[in-house]
Amino acid sequence: MIKRRRTRQISIGRVKIGGSAPISVQSMTKTRTADVASTLAQIRSLEDAGCEIVRIALSDSDDAEAFKKIRKATDMPLVADIHFDYRLALKAVRYGVDGLRINPGNIGSSERVEEVVRAAKDADIPIRIGVNAGSLEKDILKRHGHTPWAMVESAMRRIEIFEGLDFRDIKVSLKASDVMSTVEAYRILSEKADYPLHIGITEAGTAFSGTVKSAAGLGILLSQGIGDTLRVSLTGTPEEEVRVGYAVLKALGIRKKGVNIISCPTCGRVKVDVVSLACEVERRLLHIDTPLDVAVMGCVVNGPGEAVQADVGLASGDGVGLIYRRGEVVKKVKEEDMVDELVAMVEDLVLSGYKKSEII
Amino acid sequence: MIKRRRTRQISIGRVKIGGSAPISVQSMTKTRTADVASTLAQIRSLEDAGCEIVRIALSDSDDAEAFKKIRKATDMPLVADIHFDYRLALKAVRYGVDGLRINPGNIGSSERVEEVVRAAKDADIPIRIGVNAGSLEKDILKRHGHTPWAMVESAMRRIEIFEGLDFRDIKVSLKASDVMSTVEAYRILSEKADYPLHIGITEAGTAFSGTVKSAAGLGILLSQGIGDTLRVSLTGTPEEEVRVGYAVLKALGIRKKGVNIISCPTCGRVKVDVVSLACEVERRLLHIDTPLDVAVMGCVVNGPGEAVQADVGLASGDGVGLIYRRGEVVKKVKEEDMVDELVAMVEDLVLSGYKKSEII
């Protein structure tokens, strides 16, 4: 039901972004970059969580030297995040970074930008033009105020400079903490340029409110076919960011990974503890990577209807439940066996080689 | 930036739904309805959480008699949720319910529906036509399969019957556990009818995945101007549902309530513990109902830019922070005083009578 907007394709290391490539999930290390051991440990933990690209902030030459070591120790696609000091970008390129992110609002004169672009071109790596509402150029702010148009103009100005240098290995982001401003900015830009878009809501807040803002904002953009790679920003761990990122893609049916639990909110009709059941089933199926819908339903109203549509489903009534597999009732189970039986049925289905096709 | 679709207006007790009324937040009791004390306690707790309409499932005559007592003990707008047995709907009306929810897929013959409609009309209360993908009429499923069109046809069939009885005091919901099917169904219906829409994603799953699915689905619908009242379904507490509901409306700038924390995701640049800072500030400002943006930022890149735009902001650097109030730096504070000073500044701003205008 989603028609994805057509964009050019670029590559960050082994990961393709734009065109028909799957929408990739990225995050950023939150350790001190100069602390090589901690940063590498976080990169590995992010890899386990399914993160496909990791961004690292380089804020001084200690960070840059640490990056040199980090680069040698991991094949994870790495992006260096640079503000203020263009020389750190040059160093990152020299040390084998897979992509650069610079902020047009603070990277400095066009001579400096030119030097960075030339280095990226020689190394055949892309640059993200990462516009933030919180750090826009003063003259643009004067003309447009804090509006989506200001963000778009900041990006377009930089795109034109890059194109003038015959450099088109670009992706663009336009982030604001306000969801609708962010959405509007990406929508306007997506009509002006066909560069791949890196989407996200910036400064989204704590794990709770950041998850809601990100899911709403990314949901709106993705439903309009906008976005080629995403990063969820949370005041929380980067692994949580990756989990929310995949959950959003899963929610829209764009990428599937692991089990999608369909469970009822429970109500006065429910005679079993669906909350515990669903949480326990979700927890015990975290090891499954195969995309599957698993329904955990507590009553006879919508239970059978949802269970029959899921890959594996449980419709529980008064002390007993029916287990469904691919639309057929296959077992009647007692309340105390529901979780074990449901988990066993899912594992068995996965072992049988059952696969849904991935939608992109 | 959001243009809301024009709908008719109905009332559930004191709460208006549709037209230019604020988009209301509702939930459903999860206690056994027949347990009057627990159900009433949950209604009160929902009221404290900001819930504006409470739905209660009536599944047998014990529930109906319990409802009679519940109705007498609270002035909260109450909706009775009825499946299978139309007589329970008639009882709920007699006992003073403010609205009915029936499911076209299971309420029975048109004679029975007519009787319910006549009772609602005499009592001057609205009926929600609550279509669930999990319980559609068989002939419709045969024709359309499990598609958005099937849900829309189920609703339209019932709307026509109601209109034939000269009853237009209607709201409609079309819920599926699949986000994009739900969105598509509401979009199609919103072009066919101007009845107010009750939106939500059903069987959305546990607190984590249910929050993501609901925020994405409701975000998409609301951004298209669709939706007059909402319910977030979580396999969790109803109070959490209300909190997520408001968080979605807040994220899109549709309704504001309390403090909106803007906080950075932290990265290798950050020299203070922003996660703890932001969570602590969020927690200590839960008592504020006035809508305010409060920025908690950890570095010099986007910190000052976000802090200056917020109502109250903190841009922290290396052991010190600057506190902003309505765009001006008003104080320099040490790390250990940041939370106290920020909280005091917010409380002082609220006491001064400062108010943002509410966007609807």
Notable traits:
five-stranded mixed beta sheet; TIM Barrel; homodimer; 2 domains; 12 helices; Sulfite Reductase Hemoprotein, domain 1
Please write out the topology.
Two copies of one chain form a homodimer.
Chain A: E1 10-12, E2 15-17, E3 24-28, H1 36-48, E4 53-58, H2 61-73, E5 78-82, H3 86-94, E6 99-102, H4 110-123, E7 127-132, H5 138-144, H6 148-164, E8 170-175, H7 179-192, E9 198-199, H8 207-223, E10 229-231, H9 238-251, E11 259-263, H10 274-284, E12 292-297, H11 303-309, E13 312-316, E14 320-325, E15 328-334, H12 338-351
Parallel strand pairs in A: 3-4, 3-10, 4-5, 5-6, 6-7, 7-8, 9-10, 11-12, 12-13
Antiparallel strand pairs in A: 1-2, 13-14, 14-15
Please tell me about this protein's structure.
2 copies of one chain form a homodimer. The first copy, chain A, has 360 residues and is of the alpha/beta class. The first copy, chain A, has 2 domains: 242 residues, TIM Barrel; 93 residues, 2-Layer Sandwich (Sulfite Reductase Hemoprotein, domain 1), CATH 3.30.413. Helices cover 42% and strands 20% of the residues of chain A. Chain A has 12 helices and 15 strands. In chain A, strands 8-7-6-5-4-3-10-9 form an 8-stranded parallel sheet. In chain A, strand 6, helix 4 and strand 7 form a beta-alpha-beta unit. In chain A, 56% of the residues are buried. The mean pLDDT of chain A is 91. Chains A and B meet through strand 4, helix 7, helix 8, helix 9 and strand 11 of A and strand 4, helix 7, helix 8, helix 9 and strand 11 of B.
